[in-house]
Amino acid sequence: MTSLELLIRGLACGVIIAAPVGPVNVICMQRTATKGWRAGIVSGFGSALADTIYGAVAGFSISFVIGFLVREEHWIRFYGGMVLIAIGIWYFCRKPGALEKGNNDQSEHSDWASTFVLTLTNPTTVLSFLAVLAALGLGQRRSWWLTWFIVGGIFAGSMTWWLALASIINRFRDRFNDRALLWMNRAGGAAIGIFGVVTLLLSRVRPR
User: Fold this and answer.
1) Which residue of 17, 65, 125, 177 has the fewest CB atoms within a 10 Å radius of its CB?
2) Predicted confidence band at 49 (pLDDT cuts at 50, 70, 90)?
3) Is pLDDT at 14 greater than 80 in this prediction?
4) In which element (H, E) is residue 19 found?
5) Are 111 and 42 in contact (CB under 8 A)?
6) CB 149 within 8 A of CB 14
7) How far is CA 86 from the centre of its chain?
8) Which pLDDT score, from 0 to 100, does residue 177 have?
9) Which three-class secondary structure state does DSSP give residue 122?
10) CA-to-CA distance for 133 and 147, rounded, in angstroms?
11) Largest distance between two CA atoms of the chain
C-alpha cells in the first residue's frame, strides 16, 4: 500500500471518528453560532489534536497505553461524565454573548483546550480507531514511517469535518437572534448534560 493510499485511508478514518454527533460537535456548533467561524475551527482543532493522539496510539499499537485505557476505563468515564454534566449545566444557565463580540487569545486557548480534554476523557476513542483502522484495511503491521502517513491523514480528516461543520453553521449565523442563541445554549447544554449522564451510567458497567 502506497503512502498516498495510507494518507487517504487515514483521512477517511479521521472523518468517520469525528463525524458522529457528540458533545464536541454540539460545542463546535454553539461556539460558531455565538462567536464566529474561527471559534468553531479552534474548538474543532482541540478535538482533532486529541483524535490524532489516540489515532497514533492505535496506529502504532502501543499496547501498554491501550491496556491502561481499558483498565482505567471506569474511572476515566466516571470523571469524564461528571465534567460533561458540569459543562452542560454551565451552558444551559449562561447567557449568550452578542454576535459581534470577537475572540481574544485567552478565549481561543480555552476553546481548543476544552475540546481537547473532552475528547481525551473518552477512552473508547482509541478502541474505535482500532476497529475503524481494521475495517479500512489498516490493521496490519508496517514500517513506522508509513504509519505517520495514517496519523497525518487522521488529523486532516478530523479537521476536514470541523471545517465543514463550522462553515455550514457560519453560513446561517446571520439568521440567529438573541432569543435563538439563548435556546441554542439551552439545547446544547441539555445535550451535553445527557451525554454526561450516559457516560456516567456506562462507567458503572464493568467488564466481566
Assistant:
1) 177
2) very high
3) yes
4) none
5) yes
6) no
7) 17
8) 72
9) coil
10) 11
11) 55
